[in-house]
Amino acid sequence: MFSFLRKGRRQPPVFDSPPAPDRPVAVIGDIHGSDGLLERLLQRLEDEAGAHTLVCVGDYVDRGEDSARVIDRLMARQEAAPDSLICLMGNHERMMLDFLDAPGRAGPRWMKYGGVQTVASFRLAPPSAGASEDDWLYLRDRLEAALGARRERWLRDLPLCWQSGNVAVVHAAADPALPIAGQPEQALLWGHPDFGRVPRGDGTWVVHGHTIVPDPSAEAGVVATDTGAYATGRLTAALIAPGDIRFVTA
């Protein structure tokens, strides 16, 4: 909805649409290798939101200690009930895949931002400082073997966004000037400077993780879910139904 000043100057859009997903949804924030918290949160959601579709915003790997277990838990749940869980890609899954595709170029950055913990969860060690291209290739080959084709295909096939009614779930952000279907990967995985500052004009609520917040929030069409599980010991889900948003934290 647009409002106008009496002098004819247009103000930014005012977001006043209630959430209206086609079905109730529970959106789980960044997990980052926190398998114990994920297990507890899933149990709470079974009790409190059993009819909700579960959507994870990405960042299953890195920083926490149990990335391999998180991947296996999510894959097993999807295989048991494919329509009950949607897992999106986060920027940390993208960094991991970049490492698999170009280990010498992408490896040092991935290790810096949590890859060390991920390779450790597969019982591997990172190269030492000053590693050569051959060292990075060796780690890549060992990680690919430890992952296996099934896990790697799951990671590569993760979608970038999901939408139900006027509720869209992304990892990091969405450009408020573009429709959800037209978002660039850079905005969805890494963020956008106008996200959260400029309200959307199409009435779409955007649920996201990526940026750690002290407490989950829902304001002006933006729902923040990342409560920093690996650092704070708090993993949060946003429970969204027509006209209602509430939070559950493990």
TL;DR?
About 35% of the residues lie in helices and about 15% in strands. With about 250 residues, it is α/β, with parallel strands linked by helices.
Walk me through the structure.
- With 250 residues, the chain is an alpha/beta fold.
- It has two domains: 1-90 and 159-250, Purple Acid Phosphatase, chain A, domain 2 (4-Layer Sandwich); 94-157, no CATH class.
- It is 37% helix and 16% strand.
- It is built from seven helices and ten strands.
- The protein has helices at residues 35-48, 67-80, 91-101, 103-121, 133-156, 185-190, 229-232, and strands spanning 25-28, 53-56, 85-87, 161-164, 167-170, 205-208, 217-219, 222-224, 236-241, 244-249.
- The strands form two sheets. A five-stranded mixed β-sheet has the order 3-2-1-9-10, covered by helices on one side. It has a five-stranded mixed β-sheet with strand order 4-5-6-8-7, with no helix packed on it.
- Strand 7 (217-219) and strand 8 form a beta hairpin.
- Helix 3 (91-101) packs across helix 4 (103-121), helix 3 (91-101) crosses helix 5 and helix 4 crosses helix 5.
- The radius of gyration is 19 Å and the shape is globular.
